[in-house]
Recover the amino acids of this structure.
């Protein structure tokens, strides 16, 4: 049993760690989150997060505490910053494998651990700076605890359940941590189990609150209004699109969200409908069957809730992936053993063959220049691209030439995978087909990592930030047009506060209401006055010149110093 968890961990470490620091921070979101963590490491303030001297309240502290610790060991590098997310993904794979072993045996655990690692959605978010994988790890630990408690180890299981939820509240938000509680309550309603008191011991909610609430209360004491902002503004009002402190994020439509979620979990998503129906079908004769139903219920609630919600982003379906991996591993396991009532092998194999064949054809045609990548795809899967396109700006997308080697690799990998699946379908061999599918995904994901690195280099503000660092003198003013998170890599290169011009539609909008931020947020007239003065001013902007504040600056004093990553660097002096 331990050997299986160890094997899953080795595969996951190989997938998520190799090449982790190869690319610079992508803007957004990586430079911004790394700057928050760097401030924690520098100041030692574990309560109030700050970036560029502005208080930051959109995310809880656990990801930044861990990144700051990583910086202390490895230095403030892209590798050190991403390491927390990568190790969180490894933890998700190991915990998923362990739950699979508890419910379905060693092979189900092995398959589930590999499937939750070998998909594009988890892979991408294991290698970028966002707190989602850390949240998912905490939630999986909570569900693992509930499984242990339900199977006869109530004390330690419930300690893990409530403790995992407490840390989930510190990883991303309180309301997200309460999601499993709501689903477990729905589960008990469906199973009609009574009494419920043993599942809510007096110390359980106290443990959860003891982990999470001290930090939230301290932040409220130091920063009045934080709890209202965190609970109502960033969550409840965000879902209804009625926030007073708006950020730039443009939500997906329901159809876009579903398509992105399905694509991110391919090829395993092909078996998900059967796996969900299999788990939710009554009767549930024993505890194990009911627990499978709980896993399916979580996946359905997560995806269904965000599909119907007015606000959703591409990664909001990720918390369902570990449960989907467990459920899909179960049906593949049954098919391999040809158990009575299991799926016919070709029903599982043919959809995977179609996915691989379509991916091979698309990669080869794109490599040959016959299939351009539609702008709609980039704007659906990448939040920053979507924000630019919706606001009438040009998207930052790699050219076919820069993608050529990656597309060629993908074409070869998926062609070989499709041929292997043809053999598996012909022989009606689900075990062979599963091995081919896993090998294909493990071979494909490093190429996807190279694609991520290419995209990060094209969108990073690092080249222009380095130009500013080399040219700026002690008294020069450095400004950034638009929300600072769109170019926060700048903060890693300069040694002074950056003025933010027309950047209140941002994650820093609430922080901007505090007195010390007033001198950091400028409007266009303030910039124009400084631009026409004797001192030198640099302006980094990600907005097209036709939509930029530079249109209103004094004529003859706007000089383009550089252009990179979909950004322009201007100065009021030519040299």
């Amino acid at each position: 049993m331990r050997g299986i968890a160890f094997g899953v961990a080795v595969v996951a470490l190989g997938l998520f760690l190799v090449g982790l620091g190869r690319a610079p921070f992508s803007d957004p979101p990586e430079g911004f989150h790394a700057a928050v963590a760097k401030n924690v490491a520098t100041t030692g303030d574990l309560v109030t997060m700050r970036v560029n001297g502005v208080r930051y309240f959109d995310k809880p502290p656990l990801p930044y505490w861990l990144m700051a610790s990583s910086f202390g060991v490895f230095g403030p590098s892209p590798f050190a910053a991403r390491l927390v997310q990568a190790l969180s993904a490894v933890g998700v794979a190991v915990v998923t494998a362990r739950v699979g072993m508890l419910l379905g045996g060693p092979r189900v655990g092995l398959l589930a651990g590999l499937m939750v690692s070998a998909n594009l959605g988890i892979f991408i978010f294991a290698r970028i700076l966002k707190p989602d994988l850390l949240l998912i790890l905490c939630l999986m630990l909570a569900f693992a605890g509930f499984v242990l408690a339900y199977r006869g180890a109530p004390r330690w299981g419930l300690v893990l359940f409530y403790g995992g939820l407490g840390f989930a509240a510190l990883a991303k938000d309180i309301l997200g941590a309460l999601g499993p509680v709501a689903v477990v309550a729905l589960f008990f309603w469906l199973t009609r189990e009574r009494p419920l008191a043993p599942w809510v011991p007096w110390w359980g909610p106290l443990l959860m609150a003891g982990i999470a609430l001290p930090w939230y209360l301290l932040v409220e004491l130091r920063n009045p209004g934080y709890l209202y902002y965190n609970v109502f503004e960033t969550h409840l009002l965000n879902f209804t699109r009625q926030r007073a402190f708006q950020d730039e994020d443009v939500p997906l439509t329901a159809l876009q969200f579903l398509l992105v979620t399905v694509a991110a979990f391919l090829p395993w998503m092909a078996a998900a409908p059967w796996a969900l129906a299999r788990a939710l079908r009554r009767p549930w004769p024993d505890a194990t069957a009911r627990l499978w139903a709980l896993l399916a219920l979580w996946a359905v609630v997560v995806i269904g809730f965000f599909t119907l919600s007015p606000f959703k982003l591409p990664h909001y379906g990720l918390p369902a992936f570990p449960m989907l991996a467990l459920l899909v591993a179960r049906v593949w396991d049954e098919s391999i053993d040809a158990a009575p009532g299991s799926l016919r092998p070709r029903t599982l194999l043919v959809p995977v063959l179609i996915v691989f064949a379509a991916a091979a054809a698309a990669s080869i045609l794109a490599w040959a220049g016959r299939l351009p990548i539609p702008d709609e795809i980039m704007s659906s899967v990448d939040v920053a691209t979507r924000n630019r396109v919706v606001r009438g700006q040009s998207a930052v997308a790699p050219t076919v030439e820069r993608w050529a080697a990656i597309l060629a690799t993908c074409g070869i990998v998926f062609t070989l995978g499709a041929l292997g699946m043809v053999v598996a379908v012909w022989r009606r061999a689900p075990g062979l087909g599963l091995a081919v599918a896993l090998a294909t995904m493990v071979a494909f994901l490093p190429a996807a990592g190279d694609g991520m690195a290419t995209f990060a280099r094209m969108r990073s503000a690092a080249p222009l930030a380095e130009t500013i660092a080399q040219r700026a003198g002690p008294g020069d003013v450095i400004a950034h047009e638009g929300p600072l998170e769109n170019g926060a890599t700048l903060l890693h290169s300069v040694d002074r506060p950056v003025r933010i011009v027309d950047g209140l539609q941002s994650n820093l909008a609430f922080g901007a209401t505090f007195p010390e931020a007033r001198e950091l947020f400028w409007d266009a007239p303030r910039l124009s006055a400084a631009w026409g003065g004797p001192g030198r001013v640099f302006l980094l902007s990600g907005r097209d010149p036709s939509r930029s504040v530079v249109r209103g600056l004094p004529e003859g004093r706007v000089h383009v110093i550089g252009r990179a990553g979909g950004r322009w660097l201007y100065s009021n002096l030519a040299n």
